[in-house]
Each structure stands twice: as C-alpha cells, then as structure tokens.
Design goal:
This protein is 37% helix and 18% strand. By secondary structure, it is an alpha/beta fold. A 6-stranded parallel β-sheet has the order 5-4-6-7-9-8, with helices on both faces. Strands 14-13-12-15-16-17 form a 6-stranded parallel β-sheet. A 6-stranded parallel β-sheet has the order 19-18-20-21-23-22, sandwiched between helices. α8 packs across α14, α16 (395-405) crosses α17 and α16 packs across α23 (553-565).
Length: 621
C-alpha cells in the first residue's frame, strides 16, 4: 500500500465511495445516497454486509421483507426527493436479486434513480454450479443478473476491484442525468466482492454533485416561440418533469403571464394547487372533462416534462388531428415524440427563455374564459361524485372524505387498479408536489412499499406531515409486508384498504368490452367454490399496526382523524362496491385490443364501438 493509496476490498470501496458523495439542494449540502434497503444472503452478507456495518450511521440500512418491496420503496424515496437523492438496494445471488426485476422496471419506466448492488456467481467458476445458479450450457457467463440489462439505464458486472473506479462515477452520472435518469445495476460476484486492491485515496474524497441543466437550442426555441405566438387556443401539458426540474413556479408564472390554460398528466398531478385559476384539471384516459375538452380544441399544445404516454394522450385521440405539438423535455427521446416540435433542454431554463421571447403575448380572453368555465363544471361534478350522499361506498367517496381532512403537506400514494384513475380525477390538490400516483408502470404492490419509502424520505424533512396510502384488496394481497416494515422502523403511514372483492377495475374493463365477469372478482372465479373475504383488520393488526373496519362515511372520517393523531401506522378497511360509484366522466378513448372475430354479439358490438373511436387517432409516430 503506497502513501497515496488505501487497500480495500471491492465491497468496502463501493460503500466508502457512496458515503463520500454529496449533493447541493437549494443551497443545502446533503448526502447523495440516503442509505439503503437490504436483505442479506450468501451473495452479499459476508463482504458487502461487512462493509455496510462500518457505515451504518451515515448510510442507514433498512431491512426489507421482500426485495421487490425494497425496490418500490427506493423508487418512492427518489420520487419524493425529485430524483436528487437515491437509495441503494442489496440482494443476494439468485432469487433475491431476481425479485428486484419488477422494481427495476418500475424505476426505469418512471425515470427514477435507484442503485442495485446484487450478488453474483463466482468469477473463477471454481465451485460451479453453486447454490441458486442458473446454468446456460452454451454460455457460462449468462445468469439472472443479465436480465436486468433490459430494465436498467446502467448495467455492469464487476470482474476486478479496479473497475469500480470507473463504474461508480458512471453509474452516479446516469442516475443524476435529467435525460438518462433511471436505475443502475452492479453485479457483484461473490469472490470479487472480497478481493482487495490498492485504491487511490483521492477516489474517496468528498464530492458535491449538482444536477445539470441543459440550455435549449436557440433555433428550437425560436421555432417554438413563433408557433406559440400564432396560437389562438394554446394549452400547456404539465408533466412530472416540471417538478423534477424545479420548474413549478416558473411554469405558473409563464401560464399567468400569457393566460394559457394548464392541464396535468398523472405524473404531473400537484404541479398546480386545485384552486389555481388556470388549473383546468388532469388530462387523458383518467382525466377530467374540463382538461379533455380544452385538449381536443387546442390548436397549439406545449408539453413540458411529459413522456406523453397513452393515458395522457388518450392513445393519441385527445388532441385535434391538426393541432401542433411542442415538447420541451430534457430527453431527446421524449421531446421528439409524435412529430412534436422539439425543445431539448431543461424545463425551467426552457420556460424562462420562452417567457423572455414571448413578452406581450396573451391567449385570447375568450379561450381562457372557456377553459376556466369548463373547469368550474368539472369541479361541480367532482363535488357530487365524492359526496357522502352519492350512492354506495366507493373509491371516490373515500377519497373525498380523506381529502377534506388531510393536511396541506400530506403525501398521497396510489398505484395500480382503479385507484390511480379515481385519485387522479377526484383528489383536489392541497399543495405542490404532494401526489404520487405511480402509473408509469402501474405496478400492483407499489402502494404500501412505496408508501414506506416515501415516509422515510418525508420524515427527513417534513416529520409532521403524513403519508396516506390508497390501496385495493388486490394490491394488498400481492404485497403487504411493508406495513410490518413501517411499524418496525417507526415510519408511520395511514393506509386505506378499499375492498371490492377482487380485481374490480379489470372486471369493469372486461364488462365494458362486452365480456362476462370472469376470473377477476372472487365471486366470478370458476375455481373458487365459495369466496370469503380476507380479515384485513386482523391481518394488519398482526403486523403491529392500528387497524379498524369502517362501514359508513362518518366512521371513515372518525377513523382517519384517529389515524392522524396516532403515533404509528394505521390501517383503515372499508368495503366498496365493485360495480357502482365509479367516476364515469372525464375519460378519453383508450386503445385496447379486442377480438376481431367472435361468436359473442356483445363482444362484437363493443369491438365495433371501440374501433369507431380510432377515427380521431393521430397517425404520427
């Protein structure tokens, strides 16, 4: 070991490097990596576990119950911190690592940073085949870890200790890049983890990172300005990238200065508060009549920080065929979608430069007044939809009750099933950046694990606020063990389990396409002789949570108040109707595959009805 080197194992070097990385956020220097989630096994306990033990105070390791849940929690943590901080996940070789695949895909789809440090088989192959190794007879280098190449932005297998000098900075650069942001994966062979190397001391010096802001191209800006100034019916689509760029205030000022209506994507919910005059509502398949009415009449659409997925675009039927689309996005891939006029660059800088060049322009008052008017109509619909007098217990009714009692900075988490649509349509935003509806990958099980990760992040800066999780019985059954995690780690959540007896939203889609209910609701599953409900109250209580069943809106309100006052995770269970009480307004056309040939006349009728909506579909690529 030389004077300017230090001898460390591969695992020790990785953890020491992570411990030395910081980031500047709003003038405050913080550790870039908030810690990690880990389940130890034979692929990571002896070497990586030894290294982590020495940094347990600065890089806290949260013990997960399932690797997939750990990945969801890490993604939610990164989302709370607007992609400026991340957590790592460590899993053992074999099935432990394989369990992270779904979570990696979720982080990839949502462009969220997460570092995976996963065990691998022995590089020497001397003990092969080892426990849990998948053997490929014609490719001995191929294993489970290679499957992560499809669901990560950065992937590497460490075959020599010196490699981390190159790969760790590259992995961090990917995770912090506004355009390439996503999960990074390092495969760590069990023997290489413990091999030693004389690392340069300088490699472990503290470093402060800053997120790059790319200035848009002047010609692209000029083209966009000319088009916007010609607009008679402009609209702004506000996506999740607005928050990641820290551009909320700038976007609001831009919209106000030019009196341009703003419509939000699912990821962009909570860019504007509910009662902002220019907030015309959520757009798309799970949107609002107001936003969709404005979208289909707009002649120029400025999309900011959106990847324009089908639930936003109504499978590209939400906008007029001849509408012109401008897309401001840090990622070239997203900026150029569907024949958009691209502005590749940072949302905040781009909006500032657009504003400077558009001085004096305002949208025609008749257009803005129209948008504000249809939003008032939508507000009236939502008020009736969430009313306690509106029919049987429903998602909307539960959302309305909780919304009325929630704190301004409480964070709402939802994911798969019917709740993303119902929360998007009916939740009235109380403050900026307080809604996390994971619909990039629409992943069942994210709700509770993501709620735990969000609460870990929230407790660092907003300990007096609450994390509120909406989940259905289907997602609860798929992944619920992080209720236990939240109780063990004293990271309180308020969980609403809305039980409709199965996978009711897919049953609704099944029925809406002319099919009979089949294998979605428990009552309609042919292999279940006699369905019976799960005792979610007892189950949650067995994991240490406060838990209660409510049957009426008043009971729900009282239980939520008690949960707010409690000092640990509370689970509130309420039955909701599987068929009635859905939000029926605010939907655009959505392309689903239906049978072109069938003996069922109802299916045939619905197929023709759905195909008729294709006439509005934009044909760009």
């Amino acid at each position: 070991m030389g004077e300017n080197t230090v001898r460390l194992t591969t695992a020790q070097a990785i953890i020491r490097y992570l411990n030395a990385q910081f980031i500047e956020i709003d003038g405050t220097r913080q550790r870039l990596c908030g810690g990690g989630f880990g389940i130890f096994g034979h692929g990571n306990v002896t070497c990586l576990g030894e290294a982590l033990y020495d940094h347990k105070e600065t890089l806290p390791l949260y013990r997960g119950q399932n690797e997939q849940g750990m990945g969801f929690a890490a993604a939610a943590y990164a989302k709370y911190h607007l992609r400026r901080r991340f957590m790592f996940c460590t899993a053992s070789a074999g099935p432990g690592t394989a369990n992270l695949l779904t979570a990696a895909a979720l982080a990839h789809a949502n462009r969220l940073p997460m570092l995976m440090l996963c065990g691998d088989t022995f590089l020497t192959r001397l003990p092969d085949p080892v426990l849990q190794q998948l053997e490929h007879f014609n490719n001995p280098a191929l294993g489970v870890n290679d499957s992560f190449q499809a669901v990560t932005r950065y992937w590497d297998r460490i075959t020599h200790p010196a490699q981390v000098i190159q790969t760790l900075p590259a992995a961090l650069a990917t995770m912090l890049d506004p355009a390439d942001c996503g999960p990074a994966f390092l495969a760590l062979p069990q023997d290489v983890q413990g091999w030693a190397y004389d690392y340069p001391v300088s490699f472990f010096e503290e470093k402060t990172h800053r997120i790059r802001r790319q200035t848009p191209d002047a010609d692209e800006l000029a083209d966009a300005v000319a088009l916007l100034k010609s607009a008679e019916r402009p609209v702004i689509i506000a996506g999740g990238g607005v928050q990641y760029s820290g551009a909320v205030a700038v976007l609001t000022q831009f919209a106000e200065a030019h009196q341009i209506p703003v419509i939000e994507t699912i990821a962009g919910r909570a860019n504007l508060v509910n009662d902002h005059a220019l907030n015309i509502g959520p757009v798309g398949v799970t949107g609002s009549d107001s936003a969709n009415s404005v979208a289909e009449r707009a002649d120029v659409i400025l999309s900011v920080g959106s990847r324009l997925q089908d639930f936003t675009t109504g499978s590209w039927t939400a906008f007029a065929q001849d509408a012109k689309l401008i897309s401001l996005n840090a990622a070239r891939h997203d900026a150029g979608k569907h024949q958009s006029m691209p502005i590749v660059g940072d949302a905040k800088l781009g909006l500032q430069q657009l504003a400077d060049a558009m001085s004096g322009y305002k949208a025609p008052s008749s257009w803005t007044e129209y948008a504000v008017g249809v939003r008032k109509e939508w507000d009236a619909y939502v008020a009736g939809n969430v009313s306690v007098d509106n029919g049987p217990n429903s998602y909307a009714k539960a959302i309305g009750i909780v919304n009325a009692l929630a704190g301004k900075r409480d964070r709402v988490v939802a994911a798969a099933g019917g709740l993303p649509a119902e929360v998007t349509a009916n939740w009235r935003t109380l403050d900026i950046g307080t809604v996390d509806v994971e619909f990039g990958f629409s992943c069942m099980g994210y709700e509770l694990a993501g709620g735990w990760g969000a609460r870990i992040a929230q407790s660092e800066s907003e300990p007096d606020a609450d994390t509120i999780v909406f989940t259905g019985d289907g997602s609860y059954m798929l992944m619920n063990s992080d209720i236990y995690s939240s109780v063990l780690t004293q990271k309180k959540m308020i969980v609403l389990v809305l039980d409709n007896g199965g996978f009711a939203v897919i049953n609704k889609l099944q029925n809406n396409t002319g099919n009979e209910s089949f294998n979605n609701l428990l009552a309609d599953s042919p292999t279940i002789p006699e369905a019976f409900p799960v005792d979610f109250v007892a189950h949650a209580a067995s994991m240490g949570a406060h838990s209660t069943y409510v049957d009426t809106p008043d009971q729900l309100a009282q239980a939520f108040k008690a949960a707010k006052a409690a000092d640990k995770t509370s689970v509130i269970v309420m039955n909701v109707d599987a068929y009635e009480g859905w939000t029926t307004e605010g939907h655009t056309w959505w392309e689903v595959g239906t049978p072109h040939v069938t003996d069922n006349p109802k299916v045939r009728e619905k197929h023709l009805e759905i195909e008729a909506g294709r006439s509005k579909q934009r044909k760009g690529v």
